[in-house]
Batch of 3 targets.
Target 1
Amino acid sequence: MDMTNAEYNEYVKKKQPASPLWADVGKAFAVGGAICAVGQALMNGFLSRGLARDEAGTAVSLTLVFVGALLTGLGVYDDIARFAGAGTLVPITGFANSVVAPALEFKREGLIPGTAAKMFTIAGPVIVYGVGASILYGIALVLFGAG
């Protein structure tokens, strides 16, 4: 069967199901917004308990990473992601999911070659570039003065 690129594209368009774009955008917005609202509620709660702003921010980060990892381990995060799509890519919970999911997937291969090695397949570059950026930032502070 010989087809031109244009004919092939038209064929694919006919076979492809219509994407409910606005429904997907709405779900992603609602779930991503809900995750952020929970983070803000946690921040307000930690501040009301007397934590300083930076300590409260750290507590919120730790809590969201823990909850993201726990929900991934229980298989709930995947269900939320299937429903909300990109809405679950809020950086802190998405990062926890990206670390835990490969670790769970490869745990049967053993502690070191499976869980420990695969845990950072997705998260590794984030950590590497984050550490690299912080080193450059630290050097810049030393060279140009720390305010």
Target 2
Amino acid sequence: MTSNILIFCAHSDDEAVGMGGTIAKFVDSGKEIVKVVFSFGEKSHPHLKEKVIASARVEESIEASEFLGIKETIFLGLDELKFDEEIKKFNIKEKIIKIIEKYNPERIYTPSEMDLHPMKNHEAVYRLINALLGKMQKKYPLYAFEVWDVSKANKPYVYEDISKYYKKKIAYMKSFSSQWLSMYGLMPSVFLRAKKYGRAIGVKYAERFYKIR
């Protein structure tokens, strides 16, 4: 029986930065990946129409998912500036519970609550998923990944060796072409983290995850 991995993201490229290598590793091992994106990221280019940006980001996310081998990408379509309001307005909690129950994942991943996103969207996704899992009868393992630098980590963590998949992670990051400025800006920290975490477990490159549940 195929194992599912469920990944919740605030934006369509979060997991590329935080766990692109691990996703490639999971796909290679036969696991099926389902990615759920809360926002289209329509505010990322304020000088362009939001509908144009949203459409472009959806298209590139689907193409990027196909490149990496992600089975399905689900968009919830929340406004970046109104996460808390629209979570209530559009019954997002009920939708997420149905998604979790449908795919019955082996593991669930979210951005870290400690990620320093200016709109706190990463934190909002983490809080919602963690709270919902706490109320569900079945206990699903929950892990958090880093997008921005997390310097004050006070939770147990695990590492994934991505030495074989680091180059594919970088190619995956580059496939989000509308976000080239932020992607290329993050490359140095992604490299340094991968080297640092790799040294921690005696490999070339690694990604780190916080064990929440």
Target 3
Amino acid sequence: MTTIYALTDYKGNFESKYNAVPYNSGMDKDLLKKYFSGFGFEIMFVKFSDVINYPNAFWPDKIVIYTSSEDTGYYYKSFIEDIIFHLELSRAKVIPSYKYLRANNNKVFMELVRHQFNSEAIDLPTTIYGSYEEIKKIRSELNFPLVYKRAAGAMSRGVGIIINQVNLARKIKKISKTPNLLREFWEYGRSLKYKGYIRESRHRKKFLVQQYIEGLNGDFKVLIFGDKYYVLKRGTRKGDFRASGSGIRVFSREIPEGILEYANLCINILDVPNASLDIGYNGKSFFLIEFQCLYFGSFTLTYSDFYWLRTKHNKFELVEGKSVLEEEYARSIVNRCIQDESTFCM
């Protein structure tokens, strides 16, 4: 029986689950063992901190799945990134690949990953910045309105609209500020001592800016686990364009024609076994607003009474019934990444 190594955090948690018991404890590990075993695979849970106890020669071609973290300050997530990058360098089959961990709760790197695919289908006009000064230099060239996003954050925190240059200065300074009074004192002293010295910016938190898309009154959260697609319509509050975090959620079997095909195109481009896609639709075109390929919310799967099943001919059939997160996660890993020996393992 092939062994899959599942890396857990310092609490012993694996991945995320909306209705986990106890709260915020991730997927049920006993259920994961059960379902992976049913598919013919053994799962072994290993803590991130124990990875270094294995010799490098152990990891080539070993199948590794793992969790991420949304800890305050992302300190533990940084540790996880070190471990997963090490395993990729050791030629383990890390699922998903390190780039998607780096992109998790990091919207700037997510846009860089999107940019790498060079695909018009999932492209959005986006610029990224590492300081306020960088966008300040070109503010007269920008076409408003624009959407700004702080690199880290969920539920639309740190996301808003910029309508003019004055608005830009106020909002971008707010989301990018990096105050440090002692450092600012030393920088001021250096500017007096050294002629021409440019002070360190007080606004160095990275962020991105996108062109505002007209005609959106919400978006669709689409969760994909292998060949099963779960769709949730998310609305917006009056006077607010943000759907994530609005609390306006509707499960409906009536969805825009073509959205499942578009979601299928997106996940084929991403090359992952499961994903969470935020898809916008303005009545004419679909837009991939954001994506996550691990550690995403499972509300849409957990509370949906139906799903769409992708057939061998890439058609979609509506299926009535509930799903179990651990089962669908295990199935997506096994069927798409292992038994098919597809590129999704790379």
